[in-house]
Each structure stands twice: as structure tokens, then as C-alpha cells.
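Is iron/sulfur cluster placement plausible here? Inputs below.
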Amino acid sequence: MSRPVYQPADAMLEVREIYAELARRPLRKNCTGLADCCRFRLTGKTPYLTIGEALVAAAAWRAAGRTSVRPAPDGSCPFLGGDGRCRIYEGRPFGCRTHFCEAAGGPMARGEVRDLIQRLEDIDHRLGGQGAVNLPAAVQAAMAPKSGGKRR
Ligand code: SF4
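Reply from A.M.:
I modeled the complex. C-alpha cells:
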């Protein structure tokens, strides 16, 4: 009997469970919503996403009525709204939940979330990925019809 194919919908379910588990952990969280970390040119850092995270972010973007992801002229995250808020907050990637800016107390220690990162990497592998990709490229790929990202 052939092994069932791992579906994007299954991956998104697992990724959301990982996010929920992260939220339940008693880790230091002090984001005040300044959104400085969403301005990649300012910080010099861009979040990297596994495929499962990108699918969840793309699904949130589609739920907001969007059909494509365009680069922001100022180099900010394409999901950063003009009001300085994340427009896919519920679907934001793992890095946005853990790599807190200095104003929020700095990033979580990797050891505190290593098991969750491993689970995200396992999902990526099962979907045929080869590791995390920078946010704009990862989400653009996830928005493509063949990715299955529009199923939710
Ligand atoms: S996905 Fe949201 S929280 Fe993450 S960098 Fe983009 S705007 Fe900021």
C-alpha cells in the first residue's frame, strides 16, 4: 500500500499547532507592537520561513482578500500595513513570534524553542523543502496555485 501524500492542509494544521504551543509556553514576551522588526532595511534582518510557515502566512493574506505579494518600496515586510501593524498577525511566521526586537527584550533563547523549530523543519522536509527561505520569496512561492496555499 502506498504511503499517503503529505498535504499542504495537513502541514498548515501542524504549523498552527506549533504556534499554539509556543503561545502556551511561559516564555518572556514583551512585544509592544512598534513594528521596527518589520522594517527589514532598518534592522538589516529578514525573517526566514519554512514552507509550512509560508503556507500559513499566505493563507492569512488570502483571507484578507489579497492575491499577490508585492515588495514594499521601503524594504519593509510586504505585510506591514500603513498603520504600522501586521496585516497577517494571526498567521505571522515563527520568527516574528520569537525574534523579539531590543525594545521587546531581545530574542528568545534558541534552546527554549529548539524543539518547535525542529518540528517546523520536519514539516518543511516532508513538503519537499530544503530549508528556510527569506520571507518575501517564501510567501510568493506559497501564493502560487501549485503550492496549495489557497486551500485555506
Ligand atoms: S509578517 Fe507581520 S510581524 Fe512578521 S515581519 Fe511581516 S509585518 Fe512584521
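Short version: Residues 38, 47, 77, 79-80, 86, 88, 92-93, 96 surround iron/sulfur cluster (CB under 6 Å).
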